[in-house]
Hints:
The structure holds two protein chains of two kinds.
Chain A: H1 2-7, H2 9-12, H3 21-30, E1 34-39, E2 51-57, E3 60-66, H4 79-82, H5 84-88, E4 98-100, E5 109-111, H6 114-132, E6 137-140, H7 148-158, E7 163-165, H8 171-181, E8 186-187, E9 194-198, H9 210-220, E10 224-228, H10 234-237, E11 241-243, H11 250-263, H12 269-275, E12 276-277, H13 279-285, H14 291-298, H15 302-314, E13 318-322, H16 332-345, E14 355-356, H17 378-382, E15 402-403, H18 404-413, E16 421-425, H19 429-432, H20 436-445, E17 448-453, E18 465-468, E19 479-482, E20 485-488, H21 502-512, H22 524-532, H23 539-543, E21 549-550, H24 562-566, E22 584-585, H25 589-593, E23 621-626, H26 641-644, E24 651-654, H27 656-660, E25 669-673, E26 678-685, E27 693-697, E28 744-750
Parallel strand pairs in A: 6-7, 6-16, 7-15, 9-10, 9-13, 10-11, 12-22, 16-17, 17-18, 23-27, 24-26
Antiparallel strand pairs in A: 1-2, 2-3, 4-5, 4-18, 8-14, 19-20, 20-21, 23-28, 24-27, 25-26, 25-28
Chain B: E1 4-8, H1 18-27, E2 36-45, E3 48-57, H2 65-69, E4 75-77, E5 84-86, H3 96-100, E6 107-108, E7 114-115, H4 121-130, H5 139-143, E8 149-153
Amino acid sequence: MGRKIMNNGDLLKNGNLGLSREQALALASQKGEKVIASICAMCGPTPRGCGIYAFVQEGRLTRVAGMRECPVNRGAICAKGQAAPQWVYSPDRLKYPLRRIGAKGEGKFKRISWEEAVHTIAETLRSQKEQYGPESLAILAPAMRTYNAYLKRFLTVHGSPNYGHSGICALQRAFSFMYTLGDKPEAQIDQSDLIIYWARQPVFSGPAMRAPKALLQAKSRGAKIIAIKPSVEPDVAKADIWVPIRPGTDAALALAMLYVVVTENLIDHEFVAKWCYGYEQLQEHIQKYSPQWAQEITGVPAELICQIARLYATTRRACIDLGNGVEHAPSANDAIRAIAILIAITGHLDRPGGNIFNVASPGQPQPKDITLRERLTPELGKKLLGPEFPLEFQPFIEGYNSAYYRVLESVLTESPYAPRTIIAPGTQPAVSTRGSSKVIEALKKLDFYVVIDVTRTADMNYADIVLPVTTPYESDHPFEAFGGLIRARHKVIEPLGDYKSIYEFFLELAVKMGYGADFWNGSIKQCLDDQLQPLNLTYEELKTYAFGLNYEKPLPRTYENYSQVFARKSPRLNQAPYLAHGKVEIYNTSFKEAGFTPLPEWREPPESLTGTPHLAKEYPLILSDYHTSKNFTASWQRNIPYLRELQPYPVIHIHPQTAASREIKDGDWVIVKSPHGYMKVKAELYPGIRPDTVMILHGWWQGCQELGLPDFPLLQGGANVNNMYSVDPQKAYDPLITAMSSQTLVEVKKL
Amino acid sequence: MAGLCILFKPEACIGCHGCEVACKSWRQVELGLKWRKVDTGWQGIYPDVKSIFSSTACKHCEEPECMLACPTEAITKEELTGAVVVNRDNCIGCRLCLQACPYGIPQFGSDQKMQKCDLCHNDLVGYQQEKDKYCYVPPCVATCPTHALRLIPVNMDHILPSGDD
Lengths: 751, 165
């Protein structure tokens, strides 16, 4: 018997992660369980969720395994995914629809029926539409969720453009890249000899997905890895060169790298001559951004700036994987554009191992887009509360967008007008955007606030109506489509309470509002079948595919698709091309015409060591925050004990020297104070952080009942880093792409 | 000596803690206890500083000190898998095993009895007996996205080439 185990080839075969369908079924039958092939929902329901096998004992979800057949995760599952049952059965789950009966913020609610909830919301929206116009409704967008398309559709049918997108995630990069290169080109890591992870977190943003494997594979084949960020995260642990940059100064670094490649003539002359517009202006403009200049601002030694610029420019197969960290500074657009220009002029654009274009597969059917983009009008755009991008550049790829914080700010300023209802589906404004105290003020003043979520939220005590929705594990819809793979969602367990899915809610509300004709008369089945019609498929048919269906044939990769991509039309209503000259827009005439700088420039964060030296005496350290972590998704999941155990308390990373000079020891409670607020958190002595910088994970508020950990205050004295930053309209935003600042100056003192 | 062990390759670990939580979730490990634990260590000083990860569980030693130290013979080494397991009926909670273990592995929960990684011994054996063609890999190993954990025979003196996709 012993020999049998030893010789079992399968057991030792590496690369076989998770379970195969056969194994999952066998394991379930051995233990008297049911197993359901489904999609992990711990990053929220997203189109690219990891495939799982969910095990159910007597109707209860007990545990999950990664689905080996799923191309997204190939059997692996991260800590969050493994902890799913504790989320589903959390005592923090909302149980039934609620109506507020106490004062705002007091937390007194009364149970109501779904019918009453939907009726109340519909009546309120109807009367506000009559009195204030349909634009008085705003919906705050959560992170990338499968239901976002439904939110947009509802707004468009209602007549409001006020989809409140964060202003700090993904679209900021997309915008600056698209208007410079015509595309947001992907780093072709698997072909590259030099990979720069810039403000990127390739591990915690999907540990079971492709990025960490790509990083390790690149390393093992000998590619050079450079990581640019203020502190050591797992990617830095694997890197050859760490560039410890001050938070919010990526634009200065990128400009100095441009200086090096331009002044040392490390450019691809042929490409620049043929495909770039405005290189001469750049040559002149860049002279003021030397590495010595950038050293002062970024804290990165000038020699290191020169070294990485030269390495990048002279390595033929080199790519830059630019992450979300670059989207949180008033110079974000400048940083992203400067990096786009760097990629282009050094000859790394759409070439093997460089940053390659996403070229659509012509003629391949896609599920129907249900956002009703065809109904967008210029009149609708003019009603935007606080455009995320200037109106000249809207609609952008997700349609019309207001910036999330500006929607809330308009409640207070009533400029250009006051929104009357805000719906927060799967998003928590008090901890998810900057200026938390203003946000709370706005929620107090707002006429009608609706919260839709699975567990209790940071600001639900300000809501008029709270709606409890199913987790995706309790729902058999909708489908998830991404990268040519389409998967039905299979219900794992029956809903644990008086729940509807968020999709069912919006369809029902639409019907109540008289929008039934645009919402499949409230039928989820018709809604899904309609979307699948281009694929010649019904949802019932899709459900028979346990691993989903590949609806797109991958095309052979082609390179140097310049003429095609540089002529691409923008999603604006006049369909004007992204690039005015059909070339890389180094000197951006579209931006200039709209009153913005045509070339990338440097702009200081609202508070910084070099920008506001007068503050540095009282507040000598830079504060910024992390947006991903190994154990939590954004500001959720602090209530999940298996995840919370990994990090029970909010900790601020502080360099041991910085801590020692303040007599702070590891694990001490400290007060972190900025010109805008203060937090009480624990110190973690962290050797891998700039000594002039401290950093904390964002999104802390929620306690964990099972571990006896209480909630933290949302504002002063809590652990909500968003309360620490400036929201000064003149200083805290990138003027073109919103990108609210997450840098300030602080002092840290032992409590 | 026959048996299996879980090999950890630090260079492949990305510090995601998937193994740690998979273990807790699949084995219903009590809050506050860890049968497998991921830690971060530091090498060098700023700016030439690196973090290194470790994922630690019972090593199922060939000659377990904990077993020798146990006054009630509650700890045994299974012949088939090589797993060092605790018979909790016999454990008196004296913690001599913890004193003896060079790695500080034994954990004590609300019942005060010793618990730790058992290599998912019962599942490894059960599977082999009942479903010959389906082998079982402990969840910590099965969930590791980068194959930093591998189940291997103890007497294997080399690591198999990676079959990474």
